[in-house]
Structures are given as structure tokens and as C-alpha cells.
Amino acid sequence: MLNNMTDTEEGEGGPNSQGDGNPKESSPFINSSSASDVEKSQQYDGKNMALFEEEMDNSPMVSSILSSLANYSNLPQGSKEHEEAENEEGAAPSLGTLMGVYLPCIQNIFGVILFLRMTWMVGIGGVFGSFFIVFMCCSTTMLTAISMSAIATNGVVPAGGSYYMISRSLGPEFGGAVGICFYLGTTFAGAMYILGAIELLLVYILPQAAIFKMEGLEGAEMEAAMLNNMRVYGTIVLSFMATVVFVGVKYVNKLALVFLACVILSILAVYAGVIKTAIEPPVFPVCILGNRTLISKGFDVCAKVIEQDNGTITTKLWRIFCDSEFLNATCDEYFANNNVSEIQGIPGVTSGILAENLFGYYLEKGDFLEKRGLSAVQDQEVPITNSNRYVLADITSFFTLLVGIYFPSVTGIMAGSNRSGDLRNAQRSIPIGTIAAITTTSTVYMSAVVLFGACIEGVVLRDKFGEGVNGNLVIGTLAWPSPWVIVIGSFFSTCGAGLQSLTGAPRLLQAISRDSVIPFLKVFGQGKANGEPTWALLLTASICEIGIIIASLDAVAPILSMFFLMCYMFVNLACALQTLLRTPNWRPRFKFYHWALSFLGMSLCLSLMFICSWYYAIVAMVIATCIYKYIEFAGAEKEWGDGIRGISLSAARYALMRLEEGPPHTKNWRPQILVLLSMDAEQNVEQPRLLSLTNQLKAGKGLTIVGTSVVGTFLNNHAEAQKAEQSLRKLMETEKVKGFSQVVISSNLRDGTSHLIQVGGLGGLKHNTVLVSWPRTWKQPEDNLPKYEVVRETTAANMALLVPKNIAAYPSNGERFTEGHIDVWWIVHDGGMLMLLPFLLRQHKVWRKCKMRIFTVAQMDDNSIQMKKDLITFLYHLRIDAEVEVVEMHDSDISAYTYEKTLVMEQRSQILKQMHLTKNEMEREVQLIQNKNATPTSPTSPTTPAGGAATPGQEMQMTWTDKAENQAAACNHYQRLFCPVRNQSNVRRMHTALRLNEVIMKKSKEAKLVLLNMPGPPKNRMGEDNYMEFLEVLTEGLNRVLLVRGGGREVITIYS
User: Fold this and answer.
1) By three-state DSSP, how is residue 673 classified?
2) In this structure, is the dihedral angle defined by the CA atoms of residues 533, 537, 539 and 543, taken in order, positive or negative?
3) Residue 130 to residue 358: CA distance in whole angstroms
4) Terminal CA-to-CA distance of the chain, rounded, Å?
5) C-alpha distances in angstroms, 990 versus 829, 898, 975?
6) pLDDT at position 59, please?
7) Is 561 exposed, middle or buried (0-12, 13-18, 19+ CB in 10 A)?
8) Is pLDDT above 70 for 461?
9) Which listed residue, of 318, 353, 563, 700, carries a Cα 20 to 30 Å from 658's Cα?
10) Angle, to 10 degrees, between the axis of helix 553-581 and the axis of helix 118-152?
11) What is the C-alpha separation between 203 and 26, in angstroms, rounded?
12) Which residue has the higher pLDDT, 381 or 805?
């Protein structure tokens, strides 16, 4: 049933899951969809599971799942050659804790810094300072290892190692950003190892191989020659290593044990040398002139003169500082005034030199290496000469520099987790092996700090390149039986580490590329037929060349420190988040972790980043942030159940609970819009410009819910609802509306719209404004859209209502108005919505250049001049810029045209009503009309006399009040023609609508947008068409009208 299970890579939901469609890690919970009905029936036969046949169509049997879990494998070929992969198919992982985790971690942690810079760090920083640096860095990696062990034991960790753990814990954005940083760190580590190997070759093994000769040069010239040699040889070695990796990684893997043996033998040689110094210290004399350390090359005897054949003759040292070999020669003043002394470079562990080396001795670039405790005679006014004969500090040293240079020597703790697929029991081996390796290496580093300080003279420790001890590697002078053990061993170990970096970095980049989270890196997911990442290797070699061009080991080390620290910081963050959020899937087998430890580790990583180099830290963070934002906007969407999603849910829950505490203050009020859209038969949106207006109103702020209703039942029309929701989301993306879509299925559109208004939003995050388009087909009798109920329901719910008319004429988001006006007709006070909406619209680039005008209407007894002054003052306090105009509307007689419009409206309303009546209802209506005709009425009055009971026909036509009006003006001779109008209230309202429309047309016909108070809805359900007719007359002839009805609360305030 699940034979093809591992070939299906569409997520846990199978082929129909709502994922991103990109391949993901294969899952044992995916059911094969290719089995035919016959095959299924054969599978169920004899299993006594016929009752569950329907479920088994979509869900596998427990036995099948358990079988697939037992055989689950999602491990890449990695560094195996294609031929090896074919021969070893099906081979079970066989590596244990020692070979699979412990030794690879040891090999990756011990590296070039231990052999080339550890003694110098102790000499510069002192035993106390260096011990603190080592302890801080080792504590950071130990805390990170604890967090990593928890993550690694929380399920299977396939290819990608740390990248996989971070991305699946913190999401694709963090995973991609940190993955790239880890890749860059690994790449620059390769450059650092190559530079270390070249330094060993040119300084200690074969100095005569230098292309740019350094003999006779001093200062900047010698430094430039050295850097150029590093660049040339580094490029050659990098090309050779990249070729080896390209030709066959199997050779690198086979040599790994040789390189590991070199590292271990070198460290054992150092410890053996320390023990020997207690018995018989080695002879490594250092020549001191005054208190300055002399370069040992160029002379054989550490003395100015020697006695020979009963005479005094000068030495080579004399000739270096004097203009002739005779005793009466003119010599360097410092040389003449100070004595030459010889001290033992390695006095031994029992000599008590430790006390002298306890504290730091930081130097400026070009400073002399001076012996503590020795006095020297020096005239400050005399210029320094022959400085190239002394051992000088090559760089300015300070505490934070030492941290940045040292930290790479504790990286490499991910080596075990990267090999999880080859482990027999990864859940057990990774924590034990990694923590044991860090404990071992930390012990070695801390003991080395103390032992170096206890065995080696301070000036020798500070002599980075061993110039005062005949050009020997300083740590080599301590080794037993010979310094060459350390030199050769460290050379091979650094070469091996460089090869490992050039092998691992391209595979990490390939894993990131194949996840498709960073689109422009897809090309680097390709490779040879056997999966070798050719293009990724080429990019890695190119980036590595940047480190080679920098050429200084001390400058490259802080760079990779940044990237590794950032990676470790996010490992700790991932563990802390998963622990605090109590994710149901967070069940690591490793139990010795705590969120506080993870946060401490994360804090240490962040602190070390800025301690090492604040500007490198900022650059690394900027790179990570840029990649994060790029993935967020352009990357493929992935759902990995990450912790960021969990923290978003927790934050959202907390915020929603806070919103429940009370309604927002007027100062914080903004329209939270529910957009009601209608769909056509194909479930496409009919009014897309409604979302354009939403975008212009919101500008990405606040809540937006886009909703629609589908007619039917949930069981029968669920597919249509899904299609409608996809259409909404697609249109929202096109119009750049940030919000949520919601589709409800109801028996009719009226109820569906009501449901959306009632249940949209969640908790305190609910809509307070409804935006619905003007119903264009409201005059058609077959139109069943809920054109009136929305007004009533929003009023009952104390929500604002926005009804744009002629929505197709509204501008799209790409249009720009270079001039024009937004006119506000402020008839009644609605809480300030009419003032707020133009302000919000003018924040958008479409309406930005439009000016705002506010019109208000003055009645007969109003003081229009005072009204204008008050309105200007009010707008000033509201901080709104607008032109103000007061329009006077005097009383006038109702025209014949008004009566005619009202009569046509009522007749049309009656006809529409008749079309919807059943036969019985029509009979009752006829009886009502007969009763009405039988009722005597005054020839001068079309309505019931005062105090009389209203007829049923009259009650049916009452549209604005619950009781019929009992008083009416007498019809004059001209108006008697129109006395069939049965409701004088309709006449007056029609009169108002026509007068207002006439004034608005006169003032605002050329306006880009007119905002107008929406009259109140009918209090009863009779004569609703009359209401729509009034609105139609009110807005007739205007191009763009936005009818606004407030929600019953103040939404704008003059207070700060």
C-alpha cells in the first residue's frame, strides 16, 4: 500500500495538500495514490478491517506506517562517489559515537589557531586574560552544543546539519539567512586554513620558496612582500584543493584519518615536551639587547665581543650595530649604552616564569618586544636605528582582537550532527560525542594556556613568528622530540581542514539551493550525475579567494568568527523558543537542556560578536537581514512548522487578549474594514476596484477582511467556496491589500452577508467599518442581493458603512491625480468619519495631490458667517488642511417635478411589490384597495384626516416613520393633479434630495471624489425601494460618490 511512499514529496497531506508545491523532505506518512480499487480490495481482504475501508482510501494502516518508519531514510549521497553509492545501497549506518561524532568534532575543533596563535595570545593577553577568553568561548560552544543536542534528538536530522536544524526550527527566512552565514563562515574557514598552511610553509618549513624576497626589507615593505607571497601561494593551493575536491571527494575522506592523526600526535608532542621541561628544559637561548629582543638571524654569538687567543675580538652582532669590526668603531647609541644578555627561551614548568606571564602585555604595531624586569638605557631624543634587527610587534593588539582571532579554534562542533545519517544511533551519539569532544578540547585549550605561561619565556610567547628563537615555531620549541613534529603535523592538519571546508561548504550551499528558499541560488543546487555540487564548489572557491586576497590570518579569523557566532546564536534561539512555546512536537530525547541555558548561550554569542569586531558584526547582521527580507518577499513559501510561527501565534493570542480589555481610544481609532464582494458564476470577483479603494484607504495599516458569500450548503458547495477564496486571495495580492479573506456558505446571499458582518474578525480584532459597493441592479425585480439589510445591520451593530457609487470609475492603484479636489458634504455629524476618510485617502499616492474642500449646509435660521468661522477653527484643531464653504439652502416651494418623481417612485414600488405577491396575497391586496377606495377622503387632502386610523394600504407605504402623518398641506389647484401621492413625507424627502443634488452638482461636479452623509435607513421594512430611490436622486449626475454612515462613536479628536 505504501510501496511508492518515499517517492511522494508533497508534504504530509499527500498530493492534494495545500502546500507550496515544492519538494520537501520525504515523509513516511504519505499514502500512495496509485493503487487501484482492485489492489485496495485485495489489501483489505483477510485483515478484518472492512469497516475502515473508506478511511483507508486516504489514511494508511498502522502496520504500513510502522513498517515505513522502520525503513525511513532521507539521506543524500553526500560525499560518496556514484560508484560507491551503487555498491553500498541499502547498507545500514554503522558509525558509533567515537568514529561518527567524537573524532570528527575533535578534528574540526583543533586547528590552525592552536598551533600558530595560541602561544602569542597567551603572551599578549597573559594567562588570566587568555584563560578568560578560552573559558568564555568554550562556554559558548558548550551551551550551543546542549541546545544543538536537544534539537538534533527531536526527530531525524537529514542533510544540511545545522542549516536543517535552524531552518526547520525558525522557519525558511531565518534558516536561509543563517544558512548563508554558516556557509560563508565555512568558506572563510577554508581560506583561514589555507593561509595557515602557507604561513607554516613560508615561515617555518621552506622560507627560501618565497617569490617576493623579504631579506633586507623592513617595515611596510617586508609586510607587503609577506602578504603578496601569501596571496600567490594561497591561490595556487586553493586551486589545487578545489581540483582535488572536484575530481574525487573520496580521497579527502580517506585522508581524514591521516589528518586527524597528525593533530593528535602534535598535541601529544606538546604535552610530552611540557613534561620534559620539568626534567630537562630544552636549550633555546634568546638574545636580549638592553631589554629588547633581537632577531636571532645574522649572528652566532649573543655578545658584543669575545675573548680569543688572549685578545678581544668583536662578534657579528657588533658588526650589525657598528660601522666597522674594530673596537673604536662608531656604534648605534642604544647598542653602545646597553649590555647584551642571553636568557633561556623555555625555562621549564618548574622555573616560576608563570608569575611573570600572568598579566597581559598589549603592544602597538612596531613596538619592541621587551623583557620584563630588565632595565635599559635609552635617550628618547635620539632616533631609533636598526629597528629591523629587533623583534617587533606586527599588529596592534587588544583584548577584543584576541577574542576574534581565537574563537575559530572552538568552532567545528557541528561535525557530528552533519553526519547524523551515518550514525547507528544518532539520538544517542550526537549529544554524547559532541559534548565529550567539547569537554576534551576545552580541557586541552585551558591547560595549554596555563602550561604555555608556565613553561615559556614572555618575550618568546609574544614573538609571533619565532624570530628570536632561530625562526622556529614557538609551540614547536616546546614539543618533544623535535619542533618538526609540530611543524609537519600542523601543516598537514591545516591542509586537511582546508580540504574539509572546501568539501562541506558546497554541500551546505547545495542543500540551501535545493530547498528553493532563495530563488537566485537555484543554479547552485545542480551538480554532476552523482550529485557532486560543481557550481557550488566554483562559487565557494571564488569566495574563498577573497579571504586569500586579504592574506592575513589575523584579519580573516574575525570574519569567520562573526558568521559562526551568528549560526550558534540562532541554534540557541531555536532551542529556547521551542522550549518556551511548548510546541507539541518538541520532545527531544536529550533531557539536559533548559531555556535559560539557551538564552545564556545566545547572549554570549551576541556579546562575542561585538567584542570580536563591532563593524564585522554589523556587516554580518546586515547580510543576514538582507537575505531574510529577500526570502520574505521573493522566496518560496515553506511550511515547516517552525518556531517563529509558534511565537507569532503566541504574540497574536496575547495581543488579542489585550484588545479584549476595552474599545480603542478615539486617538487610536482607524477603520478596520470588512469588504463585501460579490462573485460571478465562475467565482470571480465582480468589483475588483473595491479592493483598490480599500488599499488607498488602508495603506497596509489596520485590519482588512475581504469577504463573500456562496449560495448553497457546506457539504455540496465547499469546492466553490475554496475557488472563491483563491480568487479573493489572488485579487488581494494583485491589489496589494494586506488582510484576510473569508468565504461563508449560506442558503441565500442575504443571510451570508449577515453572517460575515456578525462573525468577521476574532475577539477584539474585529471590523468596525463595512465597505460595500452600490447595487447597480437594485431596480431590477429579479435582483435578490441584500441591498437594504446591510444598512440596517451595520447600524444595529454600531459599525460605519461606506458605499462607493460608480466603483468602476474609481482610480486604480497605478493612477495618479495631479490636481483636483476631494469634496466633503458635511450635512450631519457622524463622529468625524467624513473628516477622517479624506485625510486617509490623501496619504496614498493616488490622491496625494488632491486638495480637500468641506461644504456644510446652513438653514434659514443659521448664521452662515459664524458657521464658517467655527468650522475653520474646528479644522485647525483637528490639524486638517481644507477649504471651507457654507452653502445656504433657503425654503422653497415643492416643484411639480418633485411630485412627479415621487409619484413615479411610489407607483413603481407598488408594481414591484405586486410582482412578488402570491395569488392569495394578491386577493388580499385587492380587498385592501377596495376598502381604501370606500373610505371617504377630503378632496383637498390625500391622506387620512387627523386622528383617524391609518388604512393597511397606508401602513404599507410608510417608509420613514412607524406612524402615518395625519397632517398635510392643502393641495392648490396646480397640485391637485398630483394628489394621488399618498405619503407627503416622501414628497418632502424627494424635495430635499433634489435640492441637495442640485447644490452638489453646482459646486462639486468637477471634483475627483465627493463624500456625502448617507441618510438613515427606514425604520420599518416597507418601502425600501423608496429609500434607494432617494439615494439615487441625491447622487445623480456625480461621477464618484462615497456615501458615508458613521458607527455612532467619535473617530477623530482635537486632543493630542
Assistant:
1) strand
2) positive
3) 9
4) 69
5) 21, 6, 16
6) 59
7) buried
8) yes
9) 700
10) 30
11) 51
12) 805
- Tell me: pLDDT of 81 over 50: no
Q: Supply angle C-alpha 18, 23, 24, rounded to 5.
A: 85
Q: Is the Cα dihedral 626, 629, 631, 635 positive or negative?
A: negative
Environment class of 699 (CB within 10 Å of its CB; exposed 0-12, middle 13-18, buried 19+):
middle
Q: Which residues contact 369 (CB under 8 A, 6 or more apart)?
A: 292, 293, 363, 390, 391, 392, 393, 459, 462, 463, 468
Q: Side chain identity at 465, as an amino acid letter? A: F
Q: What is the mean pLDDT of residues 603-623?
A: 91
Distance between CA atoms of 638 and 151, rounded to whole angstroms? 20
> What whole-number distance in Å separates Cα of residue 260 and Cα of residue 394?
31
How would you classify the pairing of strands 1009-1013 and 821-826?
parallel
CA 320 to the chain's CA centroid:
63
Match 544511533 to its residue by C-alpha cell. Answer: 425
**Nearest one of 762, 756, 673, 764 to 1047, comparing CA atoms:** 673
* H or E element in which residue 182 lies: helix 162-199
- Judged on CB neighbours under 10 Å (0-12, 13-18, 19+), 256 is middle
Per-residue cell: 70: 522502520
Could you tell me which residues come within 8 angstroms of residue 978 by beta carbon, excluding any fewer than 6 positions away? 896, 899, 900, 903, 971
Distance separating alpha carbons of residues 293 and 656, to the nearest angstrom: 71
pLDDT of residue 910: 56
Q: Is the preceding omega at residue 408 within 30 degrees of 0, hence cis?
A: no
Residue 54: CB atoms within 10 A of its CB come to 9
Cβ atoms within 10 Å, residue 614:
11
Measure Cα distances from 13 to 371, 514, 639, 645 in Å.
73, 21, 12, 19
The torsion angles phi and psi of 459, rounded to 5 degrees, stand at: -65, -30
pLDDT at 169: 74
Report CA-CA distances (Å) from 657 to 6, 651, 660, 765.
Answer: 43, 10, 5, 10
DSSP string computed for 325-388: SSTTS-B-HHHHHS-EEEEES---TTS-GGGGGSS-----TT-B-B-TT------TTSPP--GG
Radius of gyration of the chain, Cα coordinates, nearest whole angstrom: 43
Q: Which residue has cell 413603481?
A: 908
Residues pairing with 418 in the sheet: none
Give the closest residue to 1031 by CA, choosing from 831, 713, 787, 738.
Answer: 787
Q: Count Cα atoms within 13 angstroms, Cβ side, for 424.
A: 7
Which set of grid coordinates corresponds to residue 392?
Answer: 617587533
For strands 673-676 and 704-711, give the pairing. Answer: parallel
- 20, 57, 693 from 34: Cα distances, Å: 22, 11, 48
**Distance (Å, whole) CA 693 – CA 731:** 13
For 906-953, the pLDDT digits (tens) are 555 555 555 555 444 555 555 555 555 544 433 333 333 333 344 333
pLDDT digits 0-9 by tens, 524-563: 887 776 667 888 899 999 999 999 999 888 889 888 899 8
Strands (E), 691-811: 704-711, 740-746, 769-772, 800-805
* Global confidence as pTM: 0.69
Distance CA 949, CA 952 (A): 9
What pairing do the DSSP bridges indicate for beta strands 673-676 and 769-772?
Answer: parallel
3-state SS class at 887: strand
The predicted pLDDT at position 951 comes to 37
Q: What is the mean predicted confidence (pLDDT) over 587-596?
A: 90
H or E element, residue 766: none
Which residue type does 761 have? G
Tens-place pLDDT, residues 183-222: 888 899 999 999 999 999 988 888 888 888 877 676 678 8
